[in-house]
Design brief:
- 2 copies of one chain form a homodimer.
- Chain A is of the alpha/beta class and about 400 residues long.
- Chain A has 2 domains: about 200 residues, FAD/NAD(P)-binding domain, CATH 3.50.50; about 140 residues, D-Amino Acid Oxidase, subunit A, domain 2 (D-Amino Acid Oxidase, Chain A, domain 2, 2-Layer Sandwich).
- Helices cover about 25% and strands about 25% of the residues of chain A.
- In chain A, the strands form 3 sheets. In chain A, strands 1, 2, 8, 9, 10, 11, 17 and 18 form an 8-stranded mixed β-sheet that branches. Chain A has an 8-stranded mixed β-sheet with strand order 5-6-4-13-14-15-12-16, sandwiched between helices.
- In chain A, strand 9 and strand 10 form a beta hairpin.
- Chain A starts with a helix and ends in an 18-residue tail after the last helix.
- Chains A, B: It comes from Planotetraspora silvatica.
- Chains A, B: One of its GO terms (cellular component) is cytoplasm.
Chain lengths: ~400, ~400
C-alpha cells in the first residue's frame, strides 16, 4: 500500500511552505517523469486544454531510451496474463490514430511499422511450444499464422537454416521509441506544455492533500493534480508503491537496410531473444531481464548472451556493427500490470479514505507507471485513461485491472 | 620496394616550395606518427640533444590506444619467428631502464608489472601443444615453468576448472600503453620536443632528398631527417611500404582489483585469447586478427568471440562490466618484423642507390613502423636504434633483421 508519510517526514520537506503563494505558477497537472508514459499523458492532457508541466532531469533517458518499441501484445502473450493481453490489444488498436496525431503535430516520423512479428522455433520441443501457443492464441481470437521453416526463411532469408518453423503475428507492430520521445516533446510544446529539466525531490502537501511537486532544489511547482510517471523511480516519490527496477541490457546493431524486415523472436537457451529492425538499418537486439536493482553496468555476460542468442536466430548478425550497448530499468510490478489511476488514501495524515467512484474534483495524485516491458505499447491507453481521470471523462473499462489500489484489497 | 614517386607526383605536392625559406623552423628530426613507436623515437632522440617535432592529428589514438601492452616475447614465441623473438627479448631487457627513465622524467606511473604470463590449456591436444612449446622454449634457453591444472588455479583462482595445465613465463611483463603515451608526451615536452596535432599530407622534397613533412594544410615542416612512424598509415607517406592494417577488436572489462594477477592466455577455438589485468581493476581482453582493411566497426561477431573465449578461460568474467569496445589497426608486415632504419634509394628521381654502411650525414628518411602486435614491447629498441642511425652511434646488431630494404633484395 502506498504510504506518503515517509515522504512528508523527510528532512526539509516540511521546511518548504507547501501551497504557499510562492508555489506558483499553479498548473492543472504536473507529471513527474518524461518517459513515453509521462510525456504521452502530458501531451494528451495538454491537448484537452489543461495546463501541464513535466518534471524530469533528462527526458526520454530511462526505460524508453533502452526500449525496442515493440507493439506486440499478440506475440508477447502468456497463459496467465490475459488482463495484460486485453490492455495491450486495446492500446495497440489506439496506436494508428495516436501515431497519426503525433506525427501530424510534431512533423516527425516515428518509424512505425506494421509488418508483424515472426516467432521462430528450433528443435521439436520448441515447435511443440509454438504449436500450443498458436492454439491458445487462436482460442482468444488472435490472428496468427503457422509457418514451416522454409516458410519462415521465405519471409526472412537471414534466418538460421536450423529454424524448424514459426508463428507470424501479423497484427504486431513496432516503433522507434527515441523518435516517439522526440515527437512527444515537440507535440507537447506545441500544445502549450512545459518541461522542467530538474529532478523531483518529492511531493508537496497541504495537510494530506498533494499540491504540487517539490524540485530537488527546493522549489515547489504547484499543481492541482500530480501524475507519478517516474517508472522504476516512482517509489522515491510515493514510498510503498509496489514497483521495482528490472534491469535490461539491450544492444543496437547496424546493418544494411532490409537485413531483416520484421521483428524476429525466438526462445533461445530458455530466454526470449528478439531483433527489431528499423528503416535506417539499425537493429535493436534485446534483452536481458535481471533482478539486480539499479545496477547500471553493461556486463560481459549480458552482452555475450544477447549476441549468442542473436547468432542462433540470425547467424549473419556477426558481420554487423555493434553500435550501442545500453542498460535500462523496467518498472516491474507484482502482476506485470501497470499502475494507472488515482492513488487514494495515500495522504500523510492517516488511514485510507473510502474510494469515491468519481471524485468531485480532480484527484490530487495519480499513477501512470509500472509498465514493465510494455511502456511504449501502453502509452496511448495510459495517456487517455489518465486524461479521463483528470477531466471526468469515462475511463476505458479495460484499465480497471490497473487500479493502483489493487494490491491492498 | 618503397617508391616515393607517387607521393612526389601527387597534385599539389610540387606546388609547395619544398626547402624554400618559409619551410622553417628547421628541425633535426620530424617524426610522423605519435604512437608508442614515434613518441619513443622522438623522446630518445630529443634526449640526445636533437631538435625534434612530432606530427600527428591525435597522438596515441592508433594501435597503441587499442593495445593491451603485453611485453611478452616468451609466451608469444612461434616456431618460425626467431628473429622476432631475439628482437623482443632484447627490447624486453631494455624495458626496466626505459620505464625508470620514463617514469622519472614524466612523473607518471606506467602500471608496469612483471608477474609473468600464464598460458593455459584445456584438452589433451592443447596440453600436448603446450608441452611441445615448453620444450622449444627451453631449447632456446627461455625460462618457463610447467604447471598442472591445480597449479594454474593456485596462481589464478578465477581460472576455469576445465584448465588442464599451463606454462608460466615468469619473465614476461606488461604495461598500460595509454599511460605510456601520456608519459612519453610529458617526457618529450620536458626534453624540448614539439608536437604538431595536424595530419601529415606527405613528405617534402628538394630534388630526391626528403627535407621535411608537408602538413595536410600545405605548410611544410622542415627537417634534416624524417622518421615515418605512422603505423598502418605509413604507406600513405611512403607508397610501396609493405605494411597493411590488421584489424583488431579489443575489449576492456572492469572488475574488482585482484580478480586476476597475471596475464592469462589460452588457445580457445583455435584463436589465442588473453586477459591482461591492471592495477585499477581494468582487464584488457583481446583480440581479433582481421584482414579487413581500415574497417573501423566494432562487430557483433568480434565482441561475441572475445567474450566467448574469455568465458572459457575465466568463467567469472561474465559478472564484470564491459566498459569499452575498441578497434585498432596493427601495422602488419610480410614477415611480422618491423621496419626500423633508413629508407634508402627511395627518392623520387630514380633507382636505388647503393646502401652506405654509415652515411656521411644523417639519413633523410627512416622508418620506425610495421610493429604489428609488438609496438609497445619493441618501443625501447626501436627508439634507441633510430637514435643511433641519426647520431652515428652503433646500432644494435639484432635490429639488422628489421632493415626496411630487406624485401627488395
Amino acid at each position: 500500500m502506498p504510504d506518503l508519510r515517509r515522504t512528508a517526514a523527510e528532512p526539509g520537506s516540511s521546511a518548504v511552505p507547501d501551497g504557499s503563494p510562492d508555489a506558483s505558477p499553479l498548473y492543472d497537472v504536473a507529471v513527474v517523469g518524461a518517459g513515453v508514459a509521462g510525456l504521452s499523458v502530458a501531451w494528451r492532457t495538454a491537448r484537452r486544454g489543461l495546463s501541464v508541466v513535466v518534471v524530469d532531469p533528462s527526458p526520454g533517458s530511462g526505460a524508453t531510451h533502452a526500449s525496442a518499441g515493440m507493439l506486440a501484445p499478440v506475440s508477447e502473450v502468456t497463459y496467465t496474463e490475459q488482463p495484460l493481453l486485453r490492455l495491450g490489444l486495446a492500446s495497440l488498436a489506439m496506436w494508428p490514430a495516436f501515431r497519426a496525431d503525433l506525427e501530424g503535430e510534431s512533423g516527425e516520423d516515428l518509424d512505425y511499422r506494421t509488418d508483424g512479428t515472426l516467432d521462430v522455433a528450433y528443435g521439436t520441443d520448441d515447435m511443440a511450444y509454438l504449436d500450443d501457443l498458436a492454439s491458445f492464441e487462436e482460442s482468444l481470437g488472435l490472428r496468427v499464422e503457422r509457418l514451416t521453416g522454409r516458410g519462415c526463411r521465405a519471409l526472412e532469408p537471414m534466418l538460421s537454416p536450423s529454424v524448424r518453423g514459426g508463428l507470424l503475428a501479423r497484427d504486431d507492430a513496432w516503433v522507434n521509441p527515441r523518435r516517439v520521445v522526440s515527437a512527444l516533446l515537440a507535440a507537447l510544446a506545441k500544445a502549450g506544455g512545459t518541461v522542467i529539466t530538474e529532478r523531483a525531490g518529492g511531493l508537496a502537501f497541504d495537510g494530506d492533500r498533494v499540491v504540487g511537486v517539490r524540485l530537488a532544489s527546493g522549489q515547489v511547482i504547484g499543481a492541482t493534480s500530480v501524475v507519478v510517471a517516474a517508472g522504476p523511480w516512482s517509489p522515491s516519490l510515493v514510498p510503498g508503491l509496489p514497483i521495482r527496477p528490472i534491469k535490461g541490457q539491450i544492444l543496437r546493431l547496424r546493418g544494411p537496410e532490409g537485413f531483416l524486415t520484421r521483428c524476429v523472436r525466438g526462445l533461445v537457451h530458455g530466454a526470449p531473444a528478439y531483433l527489431v529492425p528499423r528503416g535506417d538499418g539499425e537493429i535493436t537486439l534485446g534483452a536481458t531481464m535481471e533482478e539486480m536493482g539499479f545496477d547500471g553496468r553493461v556486463t560481459a555476460g549480458g552482452v555475450y548472451e544477447l549476441l549468442r542468442d542473436a547468432r542462433e536466430l540470425v547467424p549473419g548478425v556477426t558481420e554487423l556493427e555493434l553500435s550501442e550497448t545500453t542498460v535500462g530499468f523496467r518498472p516491474g510490478t507484482p502482476d506485470n500490470l501497470p499502475l494507472i489511476g488515482p492513488l487514494r488514501g495515500t495522504g500523510p495524515r492517516g488511514p485510507a479514505e473510502p474510494a469515491a467512484p468519481r471524485p468531485p474534483r480532480p484527484p490530487d495524485l495519480l499513477a501512470a507507471t509500472g509498465h514493465h516491458r510494455a511502456g511504449v505499447l501502453l502509452a496511448p491507453i495510459t495517456a487517455d485513461a489518465i486524461a479521463a481521470f483528470l477531466t471526468g471523462e469515462p475511463v476505458p473499462q479495460v484499465v480497471e485491472s490497473c487500479d493502483p489500489g489493487r494490491f491492498s484489497r
